[in-house]
Amino acid sequence: MTRRNKLLAGLVVTAGSVAGAFYMRQQLQSGTPERVGLYFPDGTLLELGPEDAAAEELLKQGRELVARARPEGS
């Protein structure tokens, strides 16, 4: 491999790393919406999101349970 090819490969890897880091940062900042999954005995799943009025109370209870389960100071 010539010196020029090594330099080009290094630049491509660097650019890819920067682009990947930017993409991951955007994904982490956007967050994922909270959802409630209701599992039924027959194996079906119903997911409710924040846009569903029925889910708000379940989301509130879920947040409270998660807050209780976390150790102090986290």
The count of β-strands is: 2
Helix-strand pattern: HEEH
Determine the number of helices (DSSP H or I, runs of at least 4 residues): 2
- How far apart the termini lie comes to 50 Å
> What strand order characterises the main sheet?
1-2
Q: What count of domains describes the coordinates?
A: 2
Helix content: 55-70%
Strand content: 5-15%
Q: What structural category arises from helix and sheet content?
A: mainly alpha
Low-confidence stretches: none
3D architecture notes:
The chain is mainly alpha-helical. The protein folds into 2 domains: 1-31; 33-74, no CATH class. It has 2 helices and 2 strands; from the N terminus they run H-E-E-H. It has helices spanning 3-30, 55-69, and strands at residues 36-39, 45-48. It has a two-stranded antiparallel sheet with strand order 1-2. The longest helix has 28 residues, at 3-30. The chain is elongated and about 65 Å long.
Briefly, what is this?
By secondary structure, this protein is mainly alpha-helical. It has helices at 3-30, 55-69; strands at 36-39, 45-48. It folds into 2 domains: 1-31; 33-74, no CATH class.
SSE order and pairing:
Layout lengths: L2 H28 L5 E4 L5 E4 L6 H15 L5
Antiparallel strand pairs: 1-2
Distinctive features:
74 residues; mainly alpha; 2 domains; 2 helices; 2 strands
